[in-house]
Amino acid sequence: MEKCILSHKTNLTQIYGATGFKKIDKALKELAEVSPLETEIVYIDDKTSTQRHRLDPVSENDTDKIQTFIEKLCKQYDTEYLLVIGGHRIIPFYSLKDPTNPNQIVYSDAPYADIYYDDLRSPDVSMGRMPDGGVTDPSLLLNQIQTAIKYFKGITEKTNDTSGVSAKTWESVSHNLYKRIKKETELVLTPEYGLGKNVPEHINVAVLRPQKWQLERPASVTKAMIEHVSASVKKILDPKIFTGRKLIYFNVHGDDRVPEWMGDMMLRFTIEGEECILIVYPDILLPKIIKQANVKNAIVFTEACFGAYTIDKTPETSNALCFLNQGVLCFVGSTAVAYGEPRKRYPRWADVLAQYFFDFVKRKYEVGAAFQMAKQRYVGTERPFNREDLKTMYEFLLYGDPSVAMP
Question: CATH number of 3-153: 3.40.50.300, 3.40.50.10390, 3.30.70.60, 3.60.160.10?
Answer without folding.
Answer: 3.40.50.10390
